[in-house]
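During the second year of the project, the team shifted from modelling isolated chains to modelling whole assemblies. The rationale, set out in the original proposal, was that interfaces cannot be judged from single-chain predictions alone. As a representative example for this report, we include one of the complexes processed in the last quarter. Its constituent sequences, exactly as entered into the pipeline, are reproduced here:
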Amino acid sequence: MATSRQTINEQLWQVVAMIPRGRVCTYGEVARQAGMPGAARRVGKALQDLPNDSRIPWYRVVNSQGRISLPESSPSRSYQRSQLEMEGVVFNAANRLDLKQYGWP
DNA sequence: TACTTGACAGCAT
DNA sequence: AATGCTGCCAAGT
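Output from the structure prediction step:
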């Protein structure tokens, strides 16, 4: 039978949980490390499915441009940025962070 | 069932 | 650097 969505989520969450403090990972990279290359969009779904009280550092996941993918209308967007800045991540004037510097691996 | 949307990414222009 | 198009695929309508 096909792998359940719950199992897929848990595999992706496990990868996100390994991102070190002060570092970030792209959606595509999380998918690759979880053994699901090309499943970047599933990572977004998995993070949406996270319970509000989860301890998983979902805010360490950004897109391949080094930008936050949450819509401007989302309150979580500012939370994500402040959490990253709190860990030392610096955003430039274009609201982007340097993946060469903060990317993991 | 058909069509649209989106917390993506890669390539072309 | 910025835009646009394509592949992707689960979820919503």
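The two ends of chain A are 33 Å apart (CA to CA). The longest helix of chain A spans residues 5-17.
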